[in-house]
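Q: Joint fold for the lines below.
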Amino acid sequence: MTAETSIGTVGRKRQRRQTLLMEGVAVVVIALLLIFAMPALLSGFRLNLLGRFLALAIVALGIDLIWGYTGLLSLGHGIFFALGGYALAMHLQLRTAEGLPDFFTLYGVEELPWFWQPFHSFPFAVVAVILVPSLVAGLFGYLVFRNRIRGVYFSILTQAALLVFFNFFNGQQELINGTNGLKTDTTEIFGVTVGSSQGQLVFYVLTVPLLIATYALCRWLTSGRFGRLLIALRDDESRVRFSGYNPTAFKTLVFAVSGGIAGVGGALYTVQSGIISPAAMEIAFSIEMVIWVAVGGRATLIGGILGALVVNFAKTFLSDQYPEVWLFFLGALFLLVVTILPEGVLGWLRSQGVKQMLGKSKKVSTYSSLEQNPEEERERENTEN
Amino acid sequence: MLYGSAGLGTSLLLKACAGNESANTAQSQGNSQTQQAASSSGSGDTIKVGILHSLTGTMAISETTLVDAEKLAIKQINEAGGVLGKQIEPIVEDGASDWPTFAEKASKLIEQNNVATVFGCWTSASRKAVLPVFESKNHMLWYPVQYEGQECSKNVFYTGAAPNQQIQPAVNWMLENEGKQFYLIGSDYVFPRTANTIVKQQLQAKGGEVVGEDYIPLGSTEVTPLITKIRAALPNGGVIFNTLNGDSNAAFFKQLQGAGLGPDKYPVMSSSIAEVEVKQIGAEYLQGHYAAWNYFMTVDNPKNQQWVDAFKAEYGEDRLTNDPMESAYNMVYLWKQSAEKAGIAENLEKVRSAAYGQTLQKAPQGKVTMNPNHHASQLVRIGRVREDGLFEIVNATDSTVEPEPWNEFVPATQGYACNWSDSNKGEKYKVKGT
Amino acid sequence: MLLLQSVFNGISVSSVLLIAALGLAIIFGLMGVINLAHGEFIMLGAYATFAVQSGFKAVLGESGLSLYIIFALPVAFIVTALVGLALERSVIRFLYGRPLDTLLATWGFSLILRQFVRSVDWSLFIGIAVFCLLFFGGLAILRRRLDGQQTRKGANTILLLLSLGIAIVTRVLLGQTDATALTKPWFSARNVDVTAPNWLQGGVPIGSFQFPFARLFIIALTIVCVVATYWFLQRSRWGLRIRAVTQNRSMSACLGIPTRKVDALTFALGSGLAGIAGCAITLLGSVGPNIGQNYIVDTFMVVVVGGVGNLVGTIVAALAIGTLTYLIGSGMFALLLTPVEALNPLADFFTFFATTSMAKVMVFALIIAFLQFRPSGIFPPKGRTAES
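A: Joint structure:
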């Protein structure tokens, strides 16, 4: 009996190692393809699009981490996205301008505001890209989770926070140039103009390994004990609490990590699109982030990446050719994903694949236990018939 | 639909062809050479131009009217034989009221479609977003809307009013005719804030007084606190200087009237209210209030009548014309004249030099001249809203007003000017003797 | 005088919030459904008002304008209630127990509604009519003919695709024709404006101050709506059922209350109230496809602060948030604090927030702070369910 199980575990371990190896090889191949083949195949414009969407895919990974695994639906990730973008853009502004960035003079500001000062240093800016959004997310998360606010309340509060940040950034012309935002295209970094094709190529190439690193981080976080704990939090928080864990700490931590990831994505997106403005904190954009993950498949990670790429390319294509259709399409996408494909494309493929292999159907699992009383749920199902 | 499906089909095909070619040319020649690439990719008998406005989103309301005006001008030019014997083919892109999208579509027009020039944008934020694209690719944008100034790019031609062609004359006129005390209100973004910086300095210099200043978020409709503050600051009446934009205007004027603040004691001078907006909000709310523009639909000259008739024939009897539309219409003609003078539409350097001094003798508003500082000299008019929603022109300058991109009332730019015809002067130089 | 003015303005700001949030509170309280399309229902109500006004203008001429709003109110209520009912029946009922999914689905629906009012014309209308006819007609026929669960599912999919295809082709073909009557958008992306009837323009002057009629009308309308809703919930047969289901769904089902019907009815009622709110706000500003977005976050705040399933909580929350927004935004707070020497730094602090857009920042920050003390709102739901 014991011998059998130990063989079983060894076998499983070996199998796991093999799949990990396979996955690693696949990731490296894709990375090489993206880095070397794509720049040769695509025009500068298309490559730039791809680079930007890959940056958005990083954000999608962060969303998947908190939504797919932990069951926290954030409608305010635009905050962290924008904070990351602003952190890098502020550094780039200071790097190029002698003395003050141009827009300050427009509003009669003569001295650099105090919080701009540290952004003179490149290492500080890089750290800030990750740390500022993480800290903001951590603080916000702590305040909210401490009071056991969750489910839709949490979502609404993130949305309110988004509006607060939007209004604040929008209104403070003298501090961060308000609606116009900060531009990065004409700035220079290490002797390269950010907006030049050379600079853009560098940022594109930089995006790929960062995406992979983020993916690896999320994989690592979700595969071990921590990951199981996150899923437990999603499925039954009370039970986790009764088991002696402190959900507040874990949720705060994972929310902060997710915020940091969004910051990285935001910074990479900013340098590739050439501008960061409060528009990145619009309500619609933050909800769109969620749909990337939903389309690809929650709690799959890869699904988030694919979803971000597919939805954004669809957006570029449709809003290009048929601007009228785009909102209809996006709206229909939300409805379809929620009603017909609650597990997303990848989840659907997997469950269908499993079904075919084993010849039995698997019950579609939803996060029913998230908010609702299970008793009530059972009753709803019963009264229907 | 904003454009017919048949036209869409052909432009799709052309886009696809151009796409392949630009992929090659962009790599072999780099970005700065795009204008040369443009000449090689044209099919020979058409010149492609880009039209870049928001067809969707909050700004679509205003920007689609500019698309109409630009397309009308292109249609008329094509019917009259085109430019340099070639037909103009407009490629319309949707900026979707989203600034990064504007930048993205601008690159697309330049790199994928190899357009000869781009007509586009409304908000300053969208212009600022596309500016780096046009500058890094050394391309050309024509921008039709009145704006806050403090900019003079080599790659942009501004055919709307600079502050000294709209805001400053408006403030002067109100100061002379309506009162010394001003309350400044605006939407919370760059144009109102910069405009109000100028107004404050100007009033200080000319003996007026600013008694209050407030900004409300774009699209907000709750203006009760604002009206309370106006009443508290101006208990006996005074001038309200309004740079609100979009939806907030309707809310402001409706509630202003409801609160009993009428134009007799609280005249409002607006910088973003033209005929289209008056009709939409309702003339009964606006009657007696003021606006300053270069053009009003009621300008009395034969060319304007002709234009208004052509516009109505094209888009419907109930359509109105206004200043930004007129400016959009003019800029297509200014570009056409410049291209013809240059002899080649695809060589942007030549077209640019040819544009300096280019004059439309008979624009709907009167005479319009493009200056070496990339802004246009135009007439300035003050109008008061009539009962029928059009404007009674109460004041007009006799001759055109020269544009000042760098404003004299902003300390940082006082005494500066812009001149692109002289390579020693360029974007911003100190004028001697100031 | 100043006090009277402040009280009136505070109440008028609050009343707009309350009327907009009322429907949302009912839906959320009963079903736990977050309806992100609520703002778009408000927008639909506003457009319905515009349509009624245009109709009156066309039929009765200018003289009809003074009465249109009396008719617009029920029309707005019925139109939005029907759209709400359709949404509940077609999507939301499959999502009960999945609040986060409902949130996304309603957002998707709100996007569709927003684009719909922009591009709706007769050809689109006919296309939708064709689709409904084919799909639901086919569904009815299939239900009679086919029995097998599996075959019916396949047939449904085919039917859906087929009718969708035919509808789109119809729409495109109609769009090709030159008949402008078919392709002219009803509203277009441009904002439209409703002119208030004569008797709602102007106001009652009291001293130097004037109470606008439009505001008085909205306050009165809000009171009527609240009272009517209260009466409906407390006194009517269906109201009793709704309250029963809110308190204990299983028990209600056992006692023979049709909980499904109660859900649908509640959703329709909540949507209809949004329609009335839409009608009211046409008196304040212009009507555009994005108008709902201005209200959505504010109304959610009212519901969250008020607590779930409690009409009194919603009223108190709306009053508190509205008054606070007004007092901070108009600089009254700063004004009140200045005379007291010790509070001067505080007064400066409030002066910084005394612009309309910064007031919003301040109010939301206060709400988040408030929820630190009362996470479940002013009147938290009592009993066993409170913790879940």
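Q: Anything notable?
A: Chain C touches chain A through 52 residues (CB under 8 Å). Residues 383-388 of chain C have pLDDT under 50 and may be disordered.
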